[in-house]
Design brief:
Layout lengths: L1 H15 L3 E2 L7 H7 L3 E8 L4 E11 L5 E11 L7 E2 L1 E6 L16 H7 L3 E6 L17 H21 L3 E2 L3 E6 L1 H16 L7 E5 L5 H11 L5 H14 L14 H10 L5 H8 L18 H12 L14 E6 L8 H12 L5 E6 L9 H4 L1 H16 L7
């Protein structure tokens, strides 16, 4: 068993760097009328994990608040029968991806295969910019947009599951790492603001950029980012979806400037490949001087946009939320200060059930600290899930 778990974890890290068979109460009647009803598009059986993946589309909103059909995946283990109950549901929010086929509905299901071992049904949104909307600019680290796509996927998937005859215990786990962790906390905020009937049992968030302004300030002060592509994508995304209209030549320098369409927007390359083409961890090698100077108006507009989506301020989380926060202190991709800031905010709001794990989990040239942190985060999250469910952890 340990060998199998280790191989799955290795596959997770490798995927970081980076046999099918086709088998509705109106939630948002006006949205469905505008863009179409929720439905399953196809199903794919994964024999290696003894798991069926049901790809589906559902009505949601784009980052501008307009109706759109998005896509996602429901994964169900063979051990979950229609006449039986699943242990519960997991809302899984994926980490940073760039290549079009890395989203859940295109078959990247490493984590879902692991969760299936615990007799849990997993619901995974693609987010805006992947799957059904892969021709659009991805809403990278726009937590409100990604949280909306995630909550809408959850609501739609529950309706589909019910219509298919599946049932589950009243447990809902909300989880993600890196960008997925930001979305995960965004889900908590959105549920508290708009969906009082959704009861999240436990939230697990690892190494997320919850405080984007703080993250960018840290990069400016150190001039280093462990994943250059993520810095670039944050800038592009906030420029696009906050309609800042900053010309690319005031944001980036060569050779990145001439290659943005190919490297980033084409969705042909993995994160590792993009970072290799950028060729430097020093942000001054690809970011224009105008964005390095916080006294310049362009930078100030950008920071204001980032602060508008800051998860470490401006909302009132429910006091009964149970949240596990994790961060490897050696991380130079997402500064640990973002997790510390979120923990400070949550506890100041009166939350008593927040566990904080920030420790030195190491890192190496082969496996940098951000990726290294995924291992202990995953193991600890599953242990807490299993404790909540009253079962033996299927990974340790």
């Amino acid at each position: 068993m340990k060998t199998v778990c280790k191989s799955i974890l290795i596959a997770l890290v490798l995927s970081w760097f980076g046999s099918s068979c086709t088998h509705e109460d109106d939630l948002y009647p006006t949205v469905e009328e505008a863009v179409g009803p929720t439905h399953i598009t196809d199903s794919v059986y994964h024999g290696d994990a003894k798991m069926m993946a049901y790809n589906f589309v559902y009505p949601s909103q784009d980052p501008f608040g307009q109706p759109v059909m998005l896509s996602g995946t429901i994964t169900i283990s063979d051990s979950v029968k229609r006449h039986d109950q699943a242990q519960g549901l997991i809302l899984y929010n994926h980490y940073t991806i760039y290549q079009a086929d890395q989203c859940p509905s295109r078959g990247e299901l490493t984590m879902q295969k692991l969760f299936a071992k615990g007799k849990l049904i997993t619901i995974s949104p693609d987010y805006y910019g992947f799957g059904r909307t892969e021709d659009a600019h991805q809403a990278y680290c726009i937590s409100r947009a990604n949280a909306q796509s995630s909550v809408d996927a959850l609501i739609a998937a529950k309706r589909l599951l019910d219509s298919m005859g599946f049932s589950w215990d009243n447990y809902l786990f909300n989880t993600g790492y890196s960008q997925g962790a930001q979305t995960t906390i965004g889900v908590v905020r959105l549920v508290d603001e708009k969906y009082p009937d959704i009861d999240i049992t436990y939230t697990f968030a690892g190494a997320g950029p919850y405080d984007i302004p703080e993250t960018y300030h840290q990069f400016l002060s150190s001039s280093i980012s462990g994943m250059p592509s993520t810095v670039i994508s944050v800038l592009l995304s906030y420029n696009e979806f906050y309609q800042l209209n900053v010309p690319f030549d005031q944001m980036f320098i060569e050779p990145l400037l001439s290659n943005i369409d190919n490297w980033i927007f084409s969705k042909q390359y993995t994160r590792e490949e993009i970072d290799a083409m950028i060729g430097s961890l020093n942000i001054t090698d690809y970011i224009a001087p105008t964005l390095m100077d916080t006294s310049i108006a362009i930078s100030q507009r950008l920071f204001a946009a980032m602060d508008d989506d800051n998860l470490c301020k401006g909302w009132s989380p429910s006091k009964d939320q149970k949240i596990f926060l994790f961060h490897n202190t050696q991380d130079i991709t997402v500064p640990v200060a973002t997790t510390s800031n979120l923990h400070h905010f949550l506890t100041n709001q009166g939350l008593n059930n927040v566990i904080l794990d920030t420790a030195d989990y190491g890192g190496s040239e082969f496996l940098p600290a951000h990726e290294t942190g995924a291992f202990p985060f995953l193991i600890r999250s599953i242990e807490l899930m299993c404790t909540t469910l009253g079962i033996t952890p299927w990974i340790s």
